[in-house]
Model the fold of this input.
Amino acid sequence: MQIIVDGSSSDLQSWPKGPWMAQAAHAAIAAIQISSSSPASQEYVSESNLASMHKVVLQTPKEGKAKMSLQDLSEKLSEARKVYEEGGEQGEEFPKHHLWVEQPEGLATCLALAPNRKPAALKKILRPCTLLKD
Done:
């Protein structure tokens, strides 16, 4: 499971860590809920896996050619999921995702991908994202 925050948003960089953590939790729960029928999600939340859940927290690129917002990333992920659903992408299931938009601000704060085994198409989309370190 991947959780991604906007690395370039100055609005979010001033937030304390607690609210960021809450946004990540909201997005992660939503992603699991919308993918609850997926075998990968069912395995992820199974009782035998509760002690070994794995998440990676990433940030979108802050600058340069690869710079993208969470909305841009969401659009790329939606398109890749559509290709998968139409049978254009063979192999592992392309995961669903949820873009959390904080209200009433209307600010995209976090994006979470449903549990997955990192299919090649997902790796390509997430390649510009880096680990969130602070």
